[in-house]
Design goal:
Largest sheet: 4 strands, antiparallel
Radius of gyration: 28 Å
Strand content: 35-45%
Strand order of the largest sheet: 3-4-2-5
Distance between the termini: 41 Å
Number of helices: 4
Number of strands: 7
Structural class: alpha+beta
Shape: elongated
Length: about 220
């Protein structure tokens, strides 16, 4: 019975909105809100690569360095849940790439991990230490938020305010009265992180900057003459 009443209420709301659109003109606008926040987490992708005459020797060297890499990350306070293998493979190395007489001259083994660093103050030291123990591939760094919900909520509110301001300006310019909201939908949120390409140093310098969290909404209003 309760479900039936709820369904009926929803149907009346939808029917009312449709009727309002059929009875008069509708104004549709979009709004965007943006919030700048400081990141509190970094995600780095790094690993080790070795080439040797046999696949087993290449993988053995990679495995040894990868174990040392994970160990030093643990020593730097990185928890096991924040270390994840993202790539592990062995591929043949060919000679005479443009020749019809190609031969396998060795094997390349690769082990890459994705690491979440939640203490940004220690990020430079973490990068320096992993390079020290043998990490020889670095695929970039991305700054993120551990919990983006507060920033997303603020961006959504700003997007709604932006849409309502636009609607008020347009209705005033057109000489009509802005009626009630008929529909409101969200276009999603985005966060644009800063990227950093690392170079070896005594302690890798890091500039975290800010993240721009953006939300977009679409709104429709009835118009009254």
């Amino acid at each position: 019975m309760k479900l039936t009443l709820v369904s009926a209420a929803i149907w009346m709301m939808v029917a009312g909105a449709v009727a309002a659109q059929d009875d008069g003109p509708v104004l549709s606008v979009s709004g965007e809100g943006q919030v700048a926040v400081a990141p509190d987490m970094a995600v780095i992708s790094l690993g080790v690569v070795h080439v040797d005459k046999t696949a087993g020797d290449a993988m053995a060297k990679v495995s040894a360095d990868a174990m040392a890499l994970v160990a030093v990350l643990s020593e730097q306070g990185i928890e096991a849940r924040d270390i994840q293998t993202s790539q592990l493979n062995v591929n043949p190395v060919w000679s005479g790439f443009d020749s019809t007489d190609r031969q396998i001259t060795g094997f390349e083994a690769r082990n890459a991990v994705t690491v979440r660093v939640r203490d940004l103050d220690g990020l430079g030291g973490v990068l320096d230490q992993v390079l020290e123990v043998g990490a020889n591939t670095f695929n970039g760094l991305q700054f993120q938020l551990q919990d983006p919900s507060a920033a997303e909520a603020e961006a959504r509110a700003a997007a709604v305010r932006d849409a309502m301001e636009k609607a008020a300006q347009l209705s005033e310019a057109a000489g009509v009265t802005l009626g009630p909201v008929l529909s409101l939908s969200e276009g999603g949120q985005t966060a644009r992180p800063e990227m950093f390409a690392a170079a070896r140093s005594a302690d890798v310098p890091i500039a975290a900057g800010e993240l721009a969290v953006t939300a977009r909404v679409s709104m429709s209003f009835s118009l009254e003459p």
